[in-house]
Write a structure and sequence with these properties.
352 residues, mainly alpha, 16 helices
Length: 352
Amino acid sequence: MLLSTIDIALRGATVALLLLLATSLFRGFGTVLAGRLAAAFAVGSAAHAVTASIGATGPISATHAPLIAISTGNVVVFWLFTRALFDEAFRLRAWHALVWAAVAAFSFVNCMWLAPASGARLSIIAVNLLALGFIVLAVVQTIASWSSDLVEGRRRVRVFIVSAAALYGGLNALLQISMAGGGPAEFANAVNSAALAAVVASISMAMMRVDGADLFPVTPAVTTETSEAAAVEPAADQKLVDALMRLMADERIYRHDNVTIGTLATKLKIPEYRLRRLINQRLGYRNFNVFLNEHRIAEAKAALADPSQAEVPVITIAMDAGFQSLGPFNRAFKATTGVTPTEYRRLKASAA
């Protein structure tokens, strides 16, 4: 009885905190994709706090199953949130919504019909293996984009937020799989609720310590304020900026394969953290790849507008500018200019 009471109290506190966090995120950053996904993730986590149960339980009611479906679909929201949080160029597509709907629908069907027909153990294992897959995708995305993140506050908190959420989600899924069909486990449920409450409280505190604009930018990367700050920056920083821009303009280092912020830092003979801060705070970029791509696209635009290169294939121009394949080049080019490279070339030819 005592464990059940503790479990219920922890779940209630966690749900209240998550709904408060969701409301705060939506009010403050509802115009930003990462902010909306963060709010949606908090709501989905609240559904998980209500429905999470270790060990086999009785038949699931038609009113309880939708909450479980939302909780399961929340792993997709978590994956999308990590993408949007660390990549301002990320945009939701129709297929993202279809993936969420498919996972949620599978969970609902599993609760209502598959589990009663085939046994709870197999159903629990299938759903939690699916959840583990999306958690792995989120972690891989976070690691892959780590080196290109230029925002110090976001770099500090990103690993904690994603690691804490992924660690809890992964352990919960493994615990569900290992104890599937083993009967209700009051102690495991109480510990699980306590762990979830601790993770939610820790993430909330971590987010409170970081400027919200660092996590959820509400203005473009390069702003008037950034330009004004650059006008009064120290002479030493200005020299570094000039040296960096010479690397871009004269050596065209952005063309090199696998150029990293470490490569540039080595050439400028400064620590990586200083160059990261320089590009972010002095030039106004939040992502290193965006900084590189701006120079690459500027070169590509000049080549596409050049009549003497009218017969040069677009992919050749893209590769010469430093892109590794045509797909990323087309997406980056259209995001910058609003048209595809082929359309841009046609427009320039018509205007000539």
